[in-house]
Amino acid sequence: MWEKFKQEYNKPDLLSSSQEEDRFKIFKTNVDFIMTENAKGHSYQLGINQFADLTSEEFAQRYARGVKPTKTLWGNVPTVPFPNMSGQILANSVDWVAKGAVTSPKNQASCGSCWAFSTTGSVEGAYQIASGKLVSLSEEDHVSCDKVDSGCHGGAMENAFQWIKKNGICTEADYPYTSGNGKTGTCKRVCKPAVTITGYTNVPPHNENALKAAVSKQPVSIAIEADKSAFQLYHGGVLDNPACGTKLDHGVLIVGYGTDGGKDYWKVKNSWGASWGEKGYIRMIRGENMCGVSLDASYPVGAKAADPSPTPGPTPPGPAPPPSPGSSHYEDPKDGCQSDEQAIQIQGVKGDFCSPACHRGRCPTDVPAGVTAEPQCALRDQSGDKYCALICNPEAKDDECGEATCKSIQGVGICTYDDDSGDDAVGDDDDDSLKHVTTALNPDFSSAGEIVI
Fold it and tell me: What is the edge-to-edge ordering of all strands in the sheet holding 412-416?
């Protein structure tokens, strides 16, 4: 059984016999658990899948850690009120898979990107219902380019909806998923957005009747707790296990509901590939808030084809100022800034940087060597003039800032240079050449609101 498992799920040969023995013991413990639970005659069955050689702790750490709190940092993105659906007669069952509004199950692999897969799934469904076209959308667009969320370190579906409203989203064919190794990829958005939305709606929590009404109209993104063994080793049937808690840690997609053997259920699309569960899906008991299913549900509104004419990205088109020959923008002020730059120091954040002016919402793209952080129009002075900064992910560990470091401010990161002198910035607080940043928000900046300087 062990050898068959390793071959079927492409498990690599272990480095030593002791590692092989330890992993086999875990596998045997899980098999014993599966046989014991299945003998109890539950409404669901457990089985050997790709997670059968992991302890529950290992599984939770690797695959149930992708949902983070929502950050409301995008400005006035519409949150459409939940409609009054009282008195409506709903169908006894709905299956958006059968209706052609759901793409095949995908696999997030070792990246904590479930939030991105949940988001693309609900937008794919909304767009198919609106247009009749089922288009697979890019999770990598979210994971690598959405700087409010944290890529493989987690995110929130509501954040991702807001990002799509601002930027649109590319197709999976144009921007394939590359972060399955667990490392957040660098944003390489050369694709043009294919779909956009006008806003999103939150379903009233603790209300499965409202959730049923929402699912009757379209697939719905939800957060659940998925770190228990019954979820890890689920094989089929209607999951009805009170041990499945409500500490939300995983983003999935409700794609329908129905009744089987007298048990009302939700049909849920996961992002662990088609070898898990019922070919990538799970049915969960309906009416008992199983795994927290009704606590954090939302869906996009106004799905439509994106305008293909603008250059993709969060900023409108316009000429960027040319760099000086042989140099770049966003350098360390100790080496001098270019004529179109200001030396910026952020209050409470160590370091400083040269900040070029924005021109019609565009920033210079000539960054220092080794930098992969994204130039964005993030700063605004009291007179209304706008300046650029390198926006990074403060939770990532991939040296986006080159010789600078990524400093966290209000949930996003900005690249700044630390001086060897021990001072927090070049010069001291009396240096009139430095602008000091406060933390007021403005909705224009696509990652976290403009920061007023």
Answer: 405-409, 412-416, 386-392, 374-380, 450-452, 441-442
